[in-house]
DNA sequence: GTTAGCACTCTCAACCTTCAAGTGCTAACG
DNA sequence: CGTTAGCACTTGAAGGTTGAGAGTGCTAAC
């Protein structure tokens, strides 16, 4: 069976209406509020057909229809209408980003907060983690007991530190020496090339071979986001949405957000594909849990990854609002960071709209 | 009215029973299960009297009695019986701590996880933050745009970093120069004395005055724990306890744990007073929210603060279990860290038991 | 001081009724 | 053939009633 235009129109009405009201949608309100000129009986026929196609479900015979996950996906792909932010929302974004004094950590937090406040959903964010990031400084500090602390600072000011094992025989002076050598070797290198640089230099390091191995291992872990890089804002906002009157849904939600590992996994894995990604849980072994939806955007400016930001919430989510907010925050962010001019990527994206 | 021994005994029974069953306690079960030789009518008289004293409340006439916050406090002070951990629990602790390879961050996380797993409550932890910590390394890195990154590494391997403003006129070489001066000045100093050292050296710094100011400001913030220092484990464990079938309690709980600031404040403020602290919310403007209880222990070994760890959960908490776990974790932790010998503090504590 | 006995209160679950909402189906219409 | 009016049917939500069970407070007797 093909989807007629009227079916699409009706499906769009159902999704819109349900997103707004959180109440199953009946044929009557569709016909009366949105589709004058057609009777509710006709709408009922169409609804029955849409149900057969898998787009709608009903809890019980007299309960109106509710969109299925499949319907949401279709809605986002084809039916959804883009909106614009209100003046006050735009002002809010601008004001929030006007304070340029903070570091990245601070920026990530405020972006996350802005998104959560404007959308009224829980916001998840993961800071920039870019393999092409240049190493700005690398220092090795002796800790005694055959261990040393490796501190790496990159161009976008992300600080990474980890402990590596070193030969017990190394004195503090040896460590300092090694530190100098390492700093010289890696300074200005991108994280992506650093590993190969390290491998190549292994031979030179002679007795410090073990140290270099440790550094290389540490570098490997740096391209993956860590727990600490995941920022979560407005977890209590979920209670503003009626689906979370049900304790089961709250459990589900809390089990997701209490594991930052899991969040990082969910957000991270399509990091460099597209701009905005929507993931809807359908329950059958999906990574995103049932009754849960995750909308994220990955931002970039001047070819530099600026991190991934988004919201997590019920499937019945105001996608128009969320996506609009994400787009506007993205624009503001790109302006803020790459204020000097726009690169090709961004131009392409703007034409798409 | 004075508390007779029998009243105390009965109060203890009520609290124990309620903690175990989560069901209001009736005079009948007290008399039959715990106080043979006395009739339920007698118990009823005592219960009525205990209610008058403010230790018990009842939701409705025929609903049995429930301990008041005041009763819990009294219970913990005087009535509670110390327990011992099971073999398997002790094994679990030992196994969890046997891996010594990780850094502090890692240690904090595993301690927190152990506590959460053994108690079945949500665990909160805050890493060591000790004013007497010695500065091991201090480096200033230029970031351009009149800003620099200050990295401070302390003895117990806590890494602190923050951005400070510097005069736009400073070149990279100037920054390096300043970094060397600062490192020399602060190396080996405790955080507590560092501030005064900085103040005294202000004059010497001449044109770098602003830099030194920034460093001093940064040092000030280091004694307070930051958001990132608060670790939360097992948030979803609350659903194992019947009070959180009620959505209102979940809201309450989530609003606390979603703000790490607030947690830090709650945990941090009696940091150096006593070993184990129990805070019970009573609702009247208390810092700890109503229906919420916070049990924390501050650990130390060799005079060094090892952080504060504990659990947050419903008032009806298994205090015996929680406190026993906290004590045993503390012992294990002290052994692990200060394996070379026990200092006076710890000996004192062990005698108290 | 302790106890048995009893009236009283309150909740909880089960059950019924009513009500409104919304559907599916059928037969008629253009 | 698509559309529509009409109507029977289903279902859940809300409200009321009832009986059982639990637990108490009180009183009078020991």
Index terms:
Beta-Lactamase; 3-stranded antiparallel β-sheet; Enolase-like, domain 1; elongated; alpha+beta; homodimer; 47% helix; 5-stranded antiparallel β-sheet; 3 domains
Topology, please?
2 copies of one chain form a homodimer.
Chain A: H1 5-21, H2 27-34, H3 40-52, E1 56-57, E2 66-67, H4 69-79, H5 87-98, H6 104-119, E3 122-126, E4 135-142, E5 147-154, E6 159-165, H7 172-186, H8 191-201, H9 209-222, E7 230-233, H10 247-257, H11 260-268, E8 276-280, E9 293-301, E10 304-313, H12 319-337, H13 344-352
Antiparallel strand pairs in A: 1-2, 3-7, 3-10, 4-5, 5-6, 8-9, 9-10
Chain A binds a DNA duplex (30 and 30 nucleotides) through residues 24, 26-28, 38-42, 44-45, 47-48, 58-64.
Summarize this structure briefly.
Chain A is α+β, with helices and mostly antiparallel strands and 353 residues long. The first copy, chain A, has helices spanning 5-21, 27-34, 40-52, 69-79, 87-98, 104-119, 172-186, 191-201, 209-222, 247-257, 260-268, 319-337, 344-352, and strands at residues 56-57, 66-67, 122-126, 135-142, 147-154, 159-165, 230-233, 276-280, 293-301, 304-313.
Describe the structure.
The structure is a homodimer of 353-residue chains. With 353 residues, chain A is an alpha+beta fold. The first copy, chain A, has three domains: 5-79, Winged helix-like DNA-binding domain superfamily/Winged helix DNA-binding domain (Arc Repressor Mutant, subunit A); 87-129 and 229-352, GAF domain (Beta-Lactamase, 2-Layer Sandwich), CATH 3.30.450; 135-222, Enolase-like, domain 1, CATH 3.30.390. Helices cover 47% and strands 17% of the residues of chain A. Chain A has 13 helices and ten strands. Chain A has helices at residues 5-21, 27-34, 40-52, 69-79, 87-98, 104-119, 172-186, 191-201, 209-222, 247-257, 260-268, 319-337, 344-352; strands at 56-57, 66-67, 122-126, 135-142, 147-154, 159-165, 230-233, 276-280, 293-301, 304-313. Chain A has a five-stranded antiparallel β-sheet. A three-stranded antiparallel β-sheet of chain A has the order 4-5-6. Chain A has a two-stranded antiparallel sheet with strand order 1-2. In chain A, helix 1 (5-21) packs across helix 3 (40-52) and helix 1 (5-21) packs across helix 4 (69-79). The longest helix of chain A is centred in the C-terminal third of the chain and has 19 residues, at 319-337. Chain A starts with a helix and ends with a helix. Mean pLDDT of chain A is 85; it is low at 340-353. The interface between A and B is medium-sized, with 32 and 31 residues.
């Amino acid at each position: 069976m093909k989807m007629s235009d009227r079916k699409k129109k009706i499906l769009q009405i159902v999704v819109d209406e349900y997103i707004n009201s959180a109440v199953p949608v009946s044929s009557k309100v569709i016909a009366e509020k949105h589709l004058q000129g057609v009777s509710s009986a006709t709408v009922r026929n169409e609804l029955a057909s849409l149900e057969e196609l898998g787009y709608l479900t009903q809890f019980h015979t007299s309960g109106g229809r509710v969109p299925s996950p499949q319907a949401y996906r279709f809605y986002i792909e084809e039916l959804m209408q883009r909106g614009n932010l209100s003046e006050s929302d735009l002002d809010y974004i601008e004001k929030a980003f006007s304070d340029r004094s903070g570091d990245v950590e601070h920026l990530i937090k405020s972006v996350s907060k802005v998104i959560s406040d404007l959308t009224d959903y829980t916001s998840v964010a993961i800071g920039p983690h870019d393999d092409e990031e240049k190493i700005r400084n690398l220092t090795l500090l002796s800790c005694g007991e055959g261990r040393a602390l490796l501190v790496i600072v990159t161009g976008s000011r992300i600080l990474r530190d980890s402990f590596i094992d070193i030969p017990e025989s190394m004195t503090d002076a040896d460590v300092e020496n090694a530190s100098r050598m390492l700093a010289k070797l890696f300074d200005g290198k991108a994280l992506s090339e650093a590993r190969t640089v390290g491998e190549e230099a292994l031979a030179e390091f002679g007795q410090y071979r073990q140290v270099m191995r440790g550094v290389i291992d540490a570098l490997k872990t740096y391209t993956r986001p860590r727990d600490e890089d995941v920022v979560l804002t407005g977890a209590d906002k979920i209670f503003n949405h009626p689906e979370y009157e049900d304790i089961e849904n709250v459990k589900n939600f809390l089990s997701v957000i209490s594991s930052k590992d899991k969040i990082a996994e969910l957000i991270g894995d399509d990091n460099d594909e597209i701009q905005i990604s929507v993931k809807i849980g359908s329950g059958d072994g999906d990574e995103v849990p049932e009754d849960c939806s995750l909308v994220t955007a990955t931002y970039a400016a001047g070819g530099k990854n600026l991190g991934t930001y988004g919201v997590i919430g019920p499937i019945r989510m105001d996608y128009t609002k969320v996506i609009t907010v994400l787009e506007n925050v993205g624009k503001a962010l790109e302006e803020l960071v790459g204020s000097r001019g726009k690169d090709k990527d961004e131009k392409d994206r703007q034409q798409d709209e």
